[in-house]
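Q: I'm writing up a methods section and want to include an example of the input and output format. Could you take the sequence below and give the corresponding predicted structure tokens, formatted cleanly so I can copy it straight into the document?
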Amino acid sequence: MPYARREARALLSANVAISDCDFEHARVQQFHGLVSATHWLRRRFADADRLVTSRIYNENSDSPVGAVAIEWSRRTSLTLRRLGFASGIVPKGATICADLVRRQT
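A: Here is the clean output for your methods example:
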């Protein structure tokens, strides 16, 4: 596993939970646990997925463990390029997957 992947995986806890959009099928996906998150991370690296982050914050500051949330201003990947988003996408909150579903129908 290349250095960047090992470094990224080392930041994940055993009970990590990730939600992401499956742009190819226009649906939200959930990943729970280190094994599932590692597979997701490998797919993101293989897809040349890049996020331009605009904000990283603790979404649950009342908890001793917390929850990291990432807001981004642009996302690019090979999949997005193949789907017609050559310059990537700009987020519209949680509606990006729903917007893609409407676009495909």
